[in-house]
Amino acid sequence: METLGTFAHLAEEIAREAGEMLLAKRPARPEVLATKSSPTDVVTALDKASEELIRARIKAVRPEDAILGEEGGSTGDGRVRWIVDPIDGTVNFLYGLPDWAVSIAVEVDGEIVAGVVNVVPRGEVFTAARGEGAWLSGERLRCNTGVPLNRALIATGFGYETGRRKIQAEVLAHVLPRVRDIRRAGSAAADLCSVAAGRVDGYYERGPQVWDYAAGGLVATEAGARLGGLNGGAASPELTLCAAPGLFEELHDLLAPLDPERDA
Ligand code: LIP
Q1: Would the annotation count 88 as a binding residue?
Q2: In the β-sheet with 181-183, what is the strand arrangement from edge to edge?
């Protein structure tokens, strides 16, 4: 019998194994295997190896499930879909910075029900199951509440294409003077977990893909945050926004008139 706990447990086991493999095999200077949307959007051999390991483990236990992975695309069409980012924060992985993560979410009939973000270099595994809370090392997570926009520490990220970055910089120029400060850690999955853990107050980004925010988004919402897009829409690559209710709306209302979903 499938329970949310079973999915969360399996996702955690697999994310931990992938993290151990990555730590063991990461050379001092990982090599770039290929580039994607721009010359700075890189893939290493270990992104591929991590996704292969994750896919193999899922298939061994649940051969009928669908899988969407950043590197391998979409396979299968079961009502259960695993959404996998084998390394979120590949540039950090390349440079040896500590914010990169293995992110695995489980979606059933279109709803994310379990999420695990293993921020490997930090030894932190964030887990969440729908309706059952978000957790880190046995501690239940709660996002910060009651923080006004002008006191909020806001995480964000940037895309890889020049045209997108031009607009992101323009939007940021409006946001920065109106908040406590900005953080750019380099992993959307880790950023969302930081919202959950109260390490930042909010997060917004134009461009993250579902594998970047599916697991971390559940961790954040199970910690009490609101996750969405503009004008009542769902979180999406157009814009993903996350913060406690109250701050979410303030941040939304600051961003919306700036038309942050455009590219130059
Ligand atoms: C990256 C993110 C990062 C974001 C980048 C990119 P990748 O994922 O998580 O925070 O700003 O646009 O999507 O490419 O390392 O898996």
Answers
A1: yes
A2: 181-183, 153-156, 202-205, 240-243, 226-228
Delimiting residues of CATH 3.40.190.80 domain(s) in the chain: 149-258
Six-digit token string for 177: 């003077």
DSSP H or E run through 125: strand 124-129
CA of 160 to the centre of ligand 1 (A): 8
CATH superfamily of 4-140: Fructose-1,6-Bisphosphatase, subunit A, domain 1 (3.30.540.10)
Identify which of 212, 213, 236, 238 to mutate to test ligand 1's pocket (most ligand atoms within 8 A of the CB): 212
Q: pTM of the prediction?
A: 0.97
Shortest-distance Cα residue to atom 4 of ligand 1: 157
Residue range 152-209, pLDDT digits in tens:
999 999 999 999 999 999 999 999 999 999 999 999 999 999 999 999 999 999 999 9
The CATH class, in words, for 149-258 is: alpha beta
